[in-house]
Write a structure and sequence with these properties.
The chain is an alpha+beta fold. It has five domains: 2-66, no CATH class; 70-174, Tetrahydropterin Synthase, Chain A (2-Layer Sandwich); 222-306 and 408-444, Periplasmic binding protein-like II (D-Maltodextrin-Binding Protein, domain 2); 309-405, D-Maltodextrin-Binding Protein, domain 2 (3-Layer(aba) Sandwich), CATH 3.40.190; 455-606, Alpha-Beta Complex (hypothetical protein yedk fold). Helices cover 34% and strands 29% of the residues. The protein has 17 helices and 31 strands. The strands form nine sheets. Strands 22, 23, 24, 27, 28, 29 and 30 form a seven-stranded mixed beta sheet that branches. Strands 13-10-14-21-15 form a five-stranded mixed beta sheet. Helix 10 links the parallel strand 17 and strand 18 (355-359). Helix 3 (110-129) crosses helix 5 (142-157). The longest helix is centred in the N-terminal third of the chain and has 46 residues, at 176-221. The protein is elongated. 32% of the residues are buried.
Amino acid sequence: MSRSLNGVALAAIAVVAIILVSMSTFIVNPTEQALILRFGQPVRDLIDAPGLYFKWPFVDTVVYIDKRILALDNERQEVLVSDNQRLEVDAFVRYHIADPLLFYQSVFDTRGADAQLGGMLNSALRRSLSGASITDIVRDKRDALMADIRDQMIVGAKRFGLDVVDVRIKRADLPAENSEAVFRRMQTERQQRAASYRAQGSQQSQQIKAEADRKVTVITAEAQQKSTLDFPPMGSRDVDNNPIGFDVDTCNDLAKALGVKAEIVETPFPQRIPALLSGKADVGVASTSNTLERAKTIGFSNLYFVFTFNILNRKGSGITNYESQKGHLVGSTAGTYEAIALEKDVKAWNDPKGSFHPYQSRADVFLALSQGQIDATDVTSTVASAIVQSGKYPNLEITGDAPYEKDYVALIALRGEQGVLNYLNLFISHQVRTGRYQELYQKWVGAGSPPDLTTRWGMPGPPQFGGAPITNIRNVGSPHWRGWLGKHNRCIVPATSFCEYADTKPRKTPKWFALGKDRPLFAFAGLWTPWRGVRGPKSAPVDGQHELFGFLTTEANAVVAPIHPKAMPVILTTPEEVDLWLLADAPTALELQRPLPDDALRIVASGEKEDSPREAVSLCQDQEPMLPL
């Protein structure tokens, strides 16, 4: 009996010991920190390292505090903004507990913290957003407003031992009833704008036709064209002082196509565009680079030549490559593509010994270079070769390539002369198709193949899907297209009609769509990029450097959908829309990705179609288009 009682006693003591040990120890996890309270008061330093710890049983209490960044996803709040409109705002807060003791004493746990932060967030939203417009909130001042709200939250949260890490607005929407009213108003405005565009388009159509007829009469009477004659082999004078060169022959070819006599007026590079705008010339055949800035003032044709660049320097100058021009006196013809690029680099080099000098003509540049006034200039490879081979400047030499992008040049005319520009496009296409372009290249430039002026269908596709060429671009939100949405990769594809194939038997039938029976000019909103690889028709693929393009598509309208229900091209019908697509920021430009109104498009023909030489280009999926970039 005594042994039995002793066993029970030992067991009881063991149980009590286990209970005491379990009540005297506690574990702190890596994601936690712990406070030790005795009768509600802290008795030890904060424990923030993970491990096993001891405390006095019965009298000590352990409070665990989360060390991680916590989130409060606030309920949607209605806010009155500056323009007296109600806005439903959905925001969230990220925070962590910086002072565990103050946190415990002030809000006790995360539910209390969320309640306090929620109230502060609502107040901060109302204070900050009440003075802002909807446009400020969703676009113009979003970051500044977020910073102001966050600063308010940081100050308020410190009272509770909290540190606010971030505050963001997830959504900002009009109330449902306001949205419906806005949509109705937008629909009415769009209908009014469409009616206005149709009326203006009809008026402009008559004006353009009348002006085109007048222009043809003027050009037919006398084709006066501007050219630069100090830019061999594009334009120069022979020993008898007669104009010669690639541009001169091109100018004469254009006059011959029109059935008139060309009057070639020598014009320095800086005066090309002013001469055109002042009416002293009708067309410029002067190797003019087709930049976006210039496109705001004048109209460009398709490309008719492409230049690369060399460094031309005086022998003994010590210049061996492009970078070694740093610290030297360099110069170029004012206003040219290479002059703008070289002057920019000289400023970037910031060497007090070096400087850039602009000149009025290339003859002035070469004279200054040969006489030692400057040490080097950057010119097109065609000019550099012609100058060295001429023997006129024996102290000049070519020392390498200038790392500039290719200089794409075009014929120029007044920006509003769409009929003239359209004819110039057809003329250039004819020069290429007949072999005249290659003939002139061999005559004036010499050995080698002329630059390929064909802009080819098919942007590079996503690598994960094999990289197959893509012409119709719909999902502009894809990361694959995002890098090509900037201004420098946008282009337009001019056309007067386009076709989709009706699913007829035994062969599909082309259906031609245009803005009207007379097929007025419009443009597709396109993207382009330089690319190296294999492109071209299957019968004659070309491996090399190409200019590729595609155009944006959108959902089909009621006219296109019966023939091609999946999509239709994004069509630009006014100069304002063209300017918006080429010059606006990407979000604004992409607002043009919408179907053309149903009454703005019609089927004008059925079956195969071939335009006469003087008609505008029509585009179908199996044709090579003409594309001014």
